[in-house]
Design brief:
Length: about 80
């Protein structure tokens, strides 16, 4: 090995603990950011589904027109008199 390689190896070995700490910190930050992004995405999807279901439930009411039934009842009552 050349002297430059030996010097570089010694320098890397001396700073190995700090380098590993930096890498671990960087990895942890990346994991936390990914977890936060996943929570935001899942929360957004859940809210969207809830909001859609709530709108459908509000529109579920049905109106029935009983005028034909009332007219028939009136005709039958008039015919029986």
């Amino acid at each position: 090995m050349s002297q430059q390689k030996v010097d570089r190896y010694k320098k890397e070995k001396a700073n190995r603990k700090q380098t590993l700490k930096k890498e671990k910190r960087k990895n942890m930050i990346c994991r936390m950011a990914a977890a936060a992004a996943a929570v935001v995405v899942v929360g957004g999807i859940g809210y969207s589904i809830y909001h859609t279901q709530a709108e459908k439930a509000a529109k579920a009411g049905v109106q029935v027109d009983y005028t034909a039934v009332n007219e028939l009842a009136a005709e039958l009552a008039g015919a029986s008199e």
